[in-house]
Q: What sequence folds into this?
């Protein structure tokens, strides 16, 4: 079945508008990256920017973090509904993962601002950035053993952080009093606001430059084009229904009990993709519970893999997707469930089960590392609190067209590398090794990509938290190729003799679980993380 546009708008003008919108989102991203304080934003680029129409439907986004971009539309609509009296220069802040607010996990803070052109409300500009600390049980605000959202940090419902261009000092002070690194948070939040105001100016200029354009009509047309382009792609798939199951290692509390995620995907004759998560585990005591916005993001990401760059990225892309997510489950939990690792780890596993189902429909790559290997370290050094957060890359899965890629972020994350120099300059840490984990990708006709070795030494006492996956269940392969090697977390403690380090190169080595918090880890201890490789690929049948 083919879907065709019925309207006869100028295709050149439509393309120009799409590119202009995308350039605004890209420039917003550049401003945020250049003005942020924390290495997590200015170095790793753990943030995303997007533009929405006045109804809250996305019209453009910068190519950034998939788990952010697919979930931000959940924020735009309720904020537009709630803040109908907002004015130019206003900005609303929120980080709540609860379903009515559309967040992901508490460190991801979203700012949203309106655009007015000649007195008329026309667009919404938004960015979402991961802050290295928002309070909670442990530095970095991703505690390994949290059992409710209140333990994970400060919850910010949608409120005005800026009114008429003036910072709301009451709200800002509440935020800064509840975090370990207030100066860094203040700088990052102001950088987010600066990014929004740049976006507002660029959107107004776009409309001033093209006074004869009916922007709202053209945006609706672009969204319709994206929907029809997506349906055309789905129409090329065989009409069938497939299922797949995969597991998280544990939920951080019951360390010996895996967490089941099950999906069925149905390609319908109407050009829809029905994604049903019935059969997944009920919500868990630990923090692996994925808010619906996160689950939806993973499904949207799968769709973008199908459509590629041929279809513009806006809300129209996602209309052919029908998601069934049972309530009170690990992929759609109740409002006070712990969620801190779901944005990174559960989203990664959701992608793996989606891809495992898709490989039964069309040729598809094997599983990538399936984790973001979240590492959080923080403490007090020379009387000043500090906290760092980073994710570590791994191997991607091999596919029918070639080998996987080594030492790279994959799927739901798209962050950049944290340079050794930035890490050591900003924090009391020393990187002892940063290398490719050779031969960790699965062998086959095409090999999976290799993982990474990241070895960091503490130069002062600190608390370490790891939120990782694929330490128990390996990244799956295809045919009779090898699976990717599972990850390994090691903690190296200096051997002490009579209160002195016996030898700086002699350590007691402990193998850590997937999710763990080490409180008051001693000076000169080392955390050594070996990330998973990607699954191999063979064209021969599975055995």
A:
């Amino acid at each position: 079945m083919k879907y065709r546009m019925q309207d006869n708008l100028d295709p050149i003008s439509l393309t120009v508008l799409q590119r202009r919108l995308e350039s605004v989102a890209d420039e917003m991203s550049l401003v945020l990256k250049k003005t942020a304080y924390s290495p997590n934003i200015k170095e790793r680029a753990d943030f995303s920017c997007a533009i929405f129409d006045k109804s809250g439907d996305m019209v453009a986004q910068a190519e950034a973090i998939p788990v952010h971009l697919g979930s931000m539309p959940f924020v735009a609509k309720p904020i537009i509904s709630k803040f109908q009296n907002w004015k130019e220069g206003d900005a609303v802040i929120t980080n709540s993962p609860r379903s009515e607010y559309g967040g992901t996990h508490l460190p991801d803070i979203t700012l949203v601002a309106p655009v007015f052109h000649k007195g008329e409300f026309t667009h919404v500009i938004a960015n979402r950035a991961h802050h290295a600390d928002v309070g909670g049980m442990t530095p970095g605000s991703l505690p390994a053993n949290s059992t409710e959202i209140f333990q994970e940090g400060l919850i910010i419902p949608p409120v005005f952080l800026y009114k008429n261009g003036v910072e709301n000092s009451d709200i800002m002070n509440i935020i800064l009093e509840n975090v370990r690194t207030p100066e860094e948070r203040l700088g990052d939040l102001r950088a987010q606001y600066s990014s929004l105001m740049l976006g507002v100016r660029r959107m107004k200029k776009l409309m001033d430059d093209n006074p004869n354009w009916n922007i709202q009509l053209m945006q609706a047309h672009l969204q319709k084009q994206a929907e029809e382009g997506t349906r055309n792609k789905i129409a090329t798939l065989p009409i069938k229904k497939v299922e797949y199951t995969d597991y998280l290692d544990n939920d951080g509390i019951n360390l010996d009990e895996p967490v089941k995620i099950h999906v069925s995907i149905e390609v319908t004759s109407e050009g829809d993709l029905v994604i049903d998560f019935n059969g997944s585990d009920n919500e868990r005591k630990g923090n692996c519970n994925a808010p619906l916005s996160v689950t939806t993001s993973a499904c949207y990401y799968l769709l973008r893999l199908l459509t590629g760059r041929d279809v513009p990225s806006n809300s129209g892309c996602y209309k052919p997707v029908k998601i069934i997510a049972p309530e009170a489950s690990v992929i759609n939990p109740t409002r006070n469930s712990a969620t801190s690792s779901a944005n990174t780890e559960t989203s990664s596993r959701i992608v793996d089960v989606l891809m495992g189902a898709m490989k039964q429909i069309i040729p598809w790559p094997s599983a990538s590392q399936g984790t973001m290997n979240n590492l959080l370290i923080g403490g007090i050094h020379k009387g000043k609190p500090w906290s760092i957060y980073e994710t570590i890359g791994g191997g991607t899965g091999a596919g029918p067209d070639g080998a996987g890629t080594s030492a790279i972020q994959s799927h739901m994350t798209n962050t950049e590398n944290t340079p050794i120099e930035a890490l050591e300059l900003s924090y009391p840490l020393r990187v002892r090794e940063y290398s490719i984990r050779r031969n960790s990708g699965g062998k086959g006709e095409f090999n999976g990509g290799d993982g990474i070795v990241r070895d960091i030494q503490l130069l002062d006492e600190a608390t370490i938290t790891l939120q990782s996956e694929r330490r128990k269940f390996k990244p799956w392969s295809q045919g009779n190729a090898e699976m990717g090697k599972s990850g390994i977390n090691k903690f190296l403690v200096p051997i002490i003799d009579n209160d002195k380090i016996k030898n700086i190169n002699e350590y007691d080595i402990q193998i850590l679980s997937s999710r763990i918090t080490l409180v008051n880890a001693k000076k000169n201890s080392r955390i050594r993380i070996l990330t998973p490789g990607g699954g191999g690929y063979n064209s021969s049948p599975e055995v």
The longest helix spans residues 182-209. The two ends are 36 Å apart (CA to CA). The chain has two domains: 11-225, 365-543.
